[in-house]
Description:
Layout: E1 9-15, E2 25-31, H1 41-61, E3 81-83, H2 84-96, H3 101-118, H4 122-129, H5 136-149, E4 156-157, E5 160-161, H6 169-172, H7 202-206, E6 219-221, H8 242-254
Antiparallel strand pairs: 1-2, 3-6, 4-5
Bound molecules: iron/sulfur cluster (SF4).
Iron/sulfur cluster binds near residues 76, 153 and 156.
Amino acid sequence: MTTQNPLPRRRLLIALDRPGGDTPLVSVLLPDGAAVFPDILPAVRAVADTLQDEARRTVAELGQAVTCHLGCDACCRHLVVLGEAEALALLRTLRGLPEPRRQQVLARFQAGLARLESADLLPRLFAVFTREAHDWRHVAEMLAAYWELAIPCPFLEDKACGIYDERPLTCRQYAMTSPPAACLDPFGPQASLVKVLPPVDLAGAAAAFDGEQAHASRVLPLLLCLLLEPRLGRHGFPILEPLPMLDRFLKFAAGHYSRKDPPPNPQAKEYP
Ligand code: SF4
């Protein structure tokens, strides 16, 4: 189930121009007038879906297949991180849910936060993600610690995403070719996950872009969106024409390097 964005929108067909490659067409919905970057995320999601389809086709040409299937919700128990623009859009989606679903999702947010608190992970997550520059070494540790708690995403309903059309870019870019059983032990010594790499990391790019220019990447855990809401967007999103803004974002994303986590450092035990 999805919510409607109140901004009037117009549909456009755009071609993704990539040197040396084909130019896939994407149908996008853009605000019909000046807007901020969170408002053009539906168009960014459409591009992400097109690129992900392309990645799956490439995998198929190599004789492999994506093993993700409806009913497998392992990835929805990971620590999903998203940029501020996406966090604001997600909160808008949450507020637009009809009752009693909205209250049910809010209750799952509270239950998840209580679980983090009882495991003493909430202050650590908070510390890692409220700094201007995230220490990716700590983030890698947080990913494993969060997984251990098996907290389902608040939007997970009946083993499926309850906001599928509006799910974050990170979720859209997540697909595996390893056997589904591998998803149940992603951090163990026998971990054997094989991820389909998206051709462009749009989630990472969106976390480092304000609509006009790039800045230091600012991401936060999905489960902390409500807690951190007062801090979201405090740097401001300039109000701009949507199509040039999308164009700038795609150009930035094309040159944006996917983030790589450094190898785990066993000495890294101190938290700020
Ligand atoms: S937003 Fe949807 S796809 Fe993403 S983790 Fe939550 S339930 Fe899963």
